[in-house]
Backbone:
C-alpha cells in the first residue's frame, strides 16, 4: 500500500516534469511557426471565416453584409436550376478529368520507364506541361479548336465531320475542357508516377520476365499494386484540383455554351464578381468545400483499404 | 541440362566487363561463380538468364543456341539477393506467381506450390505476407518459387548476402541439400569465397574481365593458378613474399636481392631470379627455437578465434599472418620464430611480372597447369 502510494507519487511527479519539459521545449517552436501562421491567418483563415459569415447574409453591391438571412442562401441555391446543372456538370467533369489524367499518366510513365531510344527527350516533353501557365495553355487550346484557324477543325473537316466547332456544342465544350485540363495536369501526374514506377525494384519484373508474364500483365499485376499509394494520392489531388478548376473555363468557354461548362468554381466567381451576389457565392463556396471534403473522406474511407503501403 | 558459354564478351558502352569467357557446365552440377564486386559474375549470370544481352559469343543449353531467346523460353528459374517477393502477395501466392504462365491446371499449380513449400519447410506459413517473415524465411520462399517451376536450371545471384552469418551457414546447408535432392543444374554467384568453397562442385573465379581459374574447391586452394586466386581463396589471405634465388639455384633470400648471410635453403632447385613466394597461414608455423629455416618476425596483433589463433606479424616491412590450430598466446611486440615450409607442396611460386603460377616441381606432383 505504502509502496503503491510512493510509486504513484513518483509517476505523478515525473509526469509533471515531462509536461514542463515539453512546454519549455516548445517555446522556440512557436517562433518558428509564426511566419506561416501570420500568412495563413491573413490569406486563408480570415477569408474562410468571412465566407462562412457572409453565407448567412444578403450582401449589397460592395460585398458588405446587409441583412441576416439565416440559411436562406443555401435553400435558394439548391432551388436554382443553374446551380444544380453546374453541380452535375462539375461532378461529370471531375470524374472524367481525374480518371483520364491518371490512366494517361500511368501509360506515359510506363512508356518512359522502358528502355527506348531518346526516352530522356520524351520524359522532358511529358513533364513539360508542368511549366506552362494555365492562361497560356488555355489560349493554346482555344486556338487548336478555333473554328476558322484551329488545326482540330481542319482535321475534323478533312475527316468529313460536319460539326467542326466543338466549342458551340455542350458535349464538345465539355470534351475540350476535359482535354485541356488533362493536358495541363498530366505533367505533374507523369512526374509523380514516373518516380513511383522507378521505385519498384527491377527484380520483380525480372522474375515475371523469367516466368513469362506479358508487359501488360506485369503492369497490371506488379506495377499498379506497388504504386497504389501514389495512385491513391494522385486521385485525391486530381479530384480536388478538378473541383477548383477555373482558368480554362474563363479563357476557353466562358462557362458556355448554354452553361454546359459553367462549373462550380466558375459559377462562384461569376455570382460574386460579375453579379455581385456575395451571399449566394459564399454559400456556394461552402457547398463546394463540403463536397471536396466529402469526396476526400469517401476516398480515404473506401479506397485506402485497398492500398498497399510498404 | 548442360550449359555451354562460347567466347562470351560483354561491354556496357565502352566499358568492357567480360571478355572471351568459355565454360562448360555439366548437367546437375553445382557451379559457383565467384569474384570481387565488379568482376562481372552477376552480369554473366544475367546473360545466362536472358536478362542481359550478350555483346559477343553464344550461349548453348543442351547444345541448343539460346543466345537470342527471351528468358521465358529458356526453362530456368532465378533466385535474387533481395528475394524479390511481391509484398502484397502472401507466401503461397508468391510461389504461384512463378507458375502463372506454365501449362498447368489450377490443381496442379496448387500441388506444386505445396510441394515446393514443403521442400523448404515453409508450408505452415503459406498465408503470411513477406514482411511478416524473417530474412531467412523470405529467402526460403524465394527458393520455393524457383523450385516450384521444376526448371532444369536454377540461377542464384548472391542469395545469402542479405542474411546474417548464422542464417547464412544454415541456408548454405539448405541449398546444398535441395540441390542433392532435386539434382537440377545450379549456377550460383557469390562474392564470398567461403560459400564458394563449401558449396560448389566446381568454382569459376572471375576478375578483371577474365576467368582466373576454373576447378574444384580443393584444386583452387591447393594449386591457385595465379596470385589473384591465391589471395582470393582462403581466409586469412595467403602470405606473399618477394624472394630472390642465387645463381646456383639452391638458396634464396627474402627481398629483392640475394644476401649470403641471410639466405635459406630451397626445398627444390629453381633457376636464379626473383619470385613471389606464397605460403598459406597454416603452413607458416611458429616454433620456439630459431634454426636456419626460420625467420624472426615481430608480432603486431593476435586474433583468438577459439579453435584457431591468427597471429599477424611484421617481417622486414612485410605483413605476414600465421594460423595456429589451437589457443596460442604470445605478447604483442614480441619476436616470433616462424618456420618456412620445407615441402614443395606447401610452396606456391608466382611470376613477379604477371602473377602467374610457376610450376616449380612437377616431379613432386604439385601443379600441372598454370604458366
Residues:
Amino acid at each position: 500500500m505504502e509502496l503503491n502510494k510512493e510509486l504513484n507519487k513518483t509517476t505523478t511527479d515525473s509526469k509533471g516534469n515531462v509536461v514542463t519539459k515539453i512546454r519549455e521545449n516548445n517555446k522556440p517552436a512557436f517562433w518558428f511557426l509564426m511566419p506561416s501562421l501570420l500568412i495563413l491567418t491573413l490569406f486563408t483563415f480570415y477569408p474562410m471565416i468571412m465566407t462562412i459569415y457572409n453565407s448567412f447574409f444578403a450582401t449589397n453591391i460592395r460585398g458588405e453584409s446587409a441583412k441576416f438571412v439565416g440559411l436562406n442562401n443555401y435553400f435558394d441555391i439548391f432551388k436554382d436550376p443553374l446551380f444544380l446543372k453546374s453541380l452535375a456538370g462539375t461532378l461529370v467533369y471531375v470524374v472524367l478529368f481525374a480518371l483520364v489524367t491518371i490512366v494517361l499518366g500511368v501509360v506515359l510513365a510506363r512508356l518512359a520507364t522502358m528502355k527506348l531510344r531518346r526516352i530522356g527527350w520524351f520524359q522532358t516533353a511529358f513533364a513539360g506541361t508542368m511549366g506552362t501557365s494555365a492562361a497560356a495553355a488555355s489560349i493554346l487550346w482555344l486556338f487548336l479548336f478555333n473554328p476558322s484557324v484551329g488545326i482540330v477543325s481542319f482535321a475534323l473537316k478533312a475527316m468529313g465531320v460536319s460539326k467542326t466547332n466543338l466549342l458551340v456544342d455542350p458535349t464538345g465544350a465539355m470534351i475540350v475542357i476535359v482535354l485541356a485540363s488533362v493536358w495541363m495536369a498530366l505533367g505533374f501526374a507523369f512526374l509523380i508516377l514516373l518516380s513511383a514506377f522507378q521505385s519498384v525494384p527491377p527484380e520483380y519484373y525480372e522474375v515475371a520476365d523469367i516466368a513469362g508474364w506479358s508487359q501488360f500483365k506485369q503492369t497490371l499485376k506488379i506495377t499498379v499494386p506497388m504504386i497504389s499509394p501514389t495512385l491513391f494520392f494522385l486521385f485525391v489531388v486530381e479530384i480536388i484540383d478538378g473541383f477548383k478548376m477555373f482558368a480554362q473555363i474563363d479563357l476557353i468557354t466562358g462557362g458556355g455554351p448554354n452553361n454546359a461548362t459553367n462549373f462550380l468554381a466558375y459559377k462562384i466567381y461569376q455570382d460574386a464578381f460579375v453579379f455581385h451576389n456575395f451571399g449566394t457565392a459564399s454559400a456556394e463556396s461552402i457547398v463546394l468545400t463540403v463536397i471536396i471534403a466529402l469526396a476526400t473522406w469517401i476516398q480515404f474511407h473506401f479506397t485506402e483499404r485497398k492500398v498497399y503501403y510498404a | 541440362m548442360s550449359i555451354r558459354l562460347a567466347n562470351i564478351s560483354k561491354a556496357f558502352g565502352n566499358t568492357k566487363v567480360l571478355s572471351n569467357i568459355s565454360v562448360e557446365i555439366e548437367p546437375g552440377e553445382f557451379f559457383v561463380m565467384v569474384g570481387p564486386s565488379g568482376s562481372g559474375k552477376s552480369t554473366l549470370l544475367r546473360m545466362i538468364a536472358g536478362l542481359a544481352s550478350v555483346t559477343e559469343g553464344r550461349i548453348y543449353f543442351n547444345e541448343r543456341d539460346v543466345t537470342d531467346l527471351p528468358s521465358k523460353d529458356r526453362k530456368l528459374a532465378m533466385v535474387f539477393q533481395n528475394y524479390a517477393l511481391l509484398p502484397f502477395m502472401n507466401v503461397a501466392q508468391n510461389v504461384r506467381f512463378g507458375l502463372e504462365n506454365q501449362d498447368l491446371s489450377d490443381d496442379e499449380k496448387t500441388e506444386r506450390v505445396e510441394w515446393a513449400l514443403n521442400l523448404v519447410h515453409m508450408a505452415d506459413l503459406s498465408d503470411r505476407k513477406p514482411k511478416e517473415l524473417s530474412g531467412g524465411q523470405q529467402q526460403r520462399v524465394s527458393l520455393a518459387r524457383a523450385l516450384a517451376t521444376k526448371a532444369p536450371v536454377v540461377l542464384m545471384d548472391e542469395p545469402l548476402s542479405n542474411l546474417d552469418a548464422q542464417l547464412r551457414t544454415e541456408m548454405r546447408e539448405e541449398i546444398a541439400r535441395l540441390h542433392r535432392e532435386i539434382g537440377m543444374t545450379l549456377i550460383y554467384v557469390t562474392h564470398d569465397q567461403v560459400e564458394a568453397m563449401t558449396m560448389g562442385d566446381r568454382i569459376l573465379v572471375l576478375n578483371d574481365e577474365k576467368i582466373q581459374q576454373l576447378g574444384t574447391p580443393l584444386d583452387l586452394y591447393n594449386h591457385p593458378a595465379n596470385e589473384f586466386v591465391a589471395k582470393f581463396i582462403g581466409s586469412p589471405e595467403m602470405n606473399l613474399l618477394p624472394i630472390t634465388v642465387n645463381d646456383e639455384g639452391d638458396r634464396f633470400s627474402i627481398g629483392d636481392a640475394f644476401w649470403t648471410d641471410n639466405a635459406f635453403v630451397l626445398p627444390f632447385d629453381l633457376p636464379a631470379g626473383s619470385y613471389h613466394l606464397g605460403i598459406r597461414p597454416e603452413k607458416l608455423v611458429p616454433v620456439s627455437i630459431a634454426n636456419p629455416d626460420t625467420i624472426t618476425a615481430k608480432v603486431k596483433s593476435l586474433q583468438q578465434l577459439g579453435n584457431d589463433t591468427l597471429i599477424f606479424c611484421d617481417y622486414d616491412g612485410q605483413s605476414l599472418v600465421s594460423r595456429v590450430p589451437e589457443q596460442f598466446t604470445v605478447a604483442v611486440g614480441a619476436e616470433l620464430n616462424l618456420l618456412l615450409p620445407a615441402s614443395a607442396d606447401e610452396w606456391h611460386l608466382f611470376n613477379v611480372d604477371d602473377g602467374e603460377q610457376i610450376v616449380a616441381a612437377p616431379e613432386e606432383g604439385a601443379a600441372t597447369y598454370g604458366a
